[in-house]
Specification:
This protein is an all-alpha fold. The chain contains seven helices and no strands.
């Protein structure tokens, strides 16, 4: 349960967070290639650290039956992480192709589901499927070039929308009186 009064009292912090996210989103929007490469590098380092911790954990609990599973998973995380860090451009291009295929398949699935089931308000699912399919095809048609900027674009859009959400929520909370909050 959300404590609305506490949220209202801290709305200034949420407003600042929202503004910061919008600014970061605009910066990311201005340099989508850099944002893409940075995010791939960050993911790579997270995988490396996770792999080291997982492998170390396997040795910590050697007598447990999952020793080899944890060791192999840890090594796999670390290897994939090193691959991402070693060549972030190739990793971004590969991940973007996977993203395009995912959008195309999920868009087709949503369209098929909407048309075959026609439940109440099925048009929204149809619309969602069409937009998702179009996005997937657009990404795929621009691939491999899209691999250098599409992840950064998606991150920028997410930062901007999340920032606006926090700004709007904090402004709405400020307008609430303590009795109505």
């Amino acid at each position: 349960m959300v404590d609305l009064e506490e949220f209202r009292q801290n709305s200034g912090w949420f407003l600042a967070l929202g503004i910061l996210m919008i600014i970061l989103g605009m910066v990311a929007l201005g340099c989508t290639v850099t944002t893409t490469l940075f995010s791939i590098m960050l993911l790579g380092w997270v995988l490396i650290i996770t792999g080291v911790v997982e492998a170390a954990g396997a040795f910590w609990e050697r007598k447990w039956g999952g020793f080899f599973l944890h060791l192999v998973v840890g090594i796999l995380y670390a290897v994939v992480g090193f691959m991402l860090v070693a060549n972030p451009k190739a990793a971004a291009v590969s991940l973007t192709l996977i993203l395009a295929v995912f959008f195309i398949v999920s868009g087709i699935f949503r369209i098929f589901t909407a048309l075959s089931m026609q439940f109440p308000h099925w048009g929204w699912l149809l619309f969602n499927g069409i937009v998702t399919l179009i996005l997937g095809v657009l990404i795929w048609r621009q691939w491999p070039v899209s691999g250098l900027w599409i992840i950064g674009l998606f991150i920028a859009i997410e930062l901007i929308l999340s920032g606006w959400t926090w700004v709007m929520l904090s402004l709405a909370a400020r307008r609430q009186t303590p009795q109505t909050a």
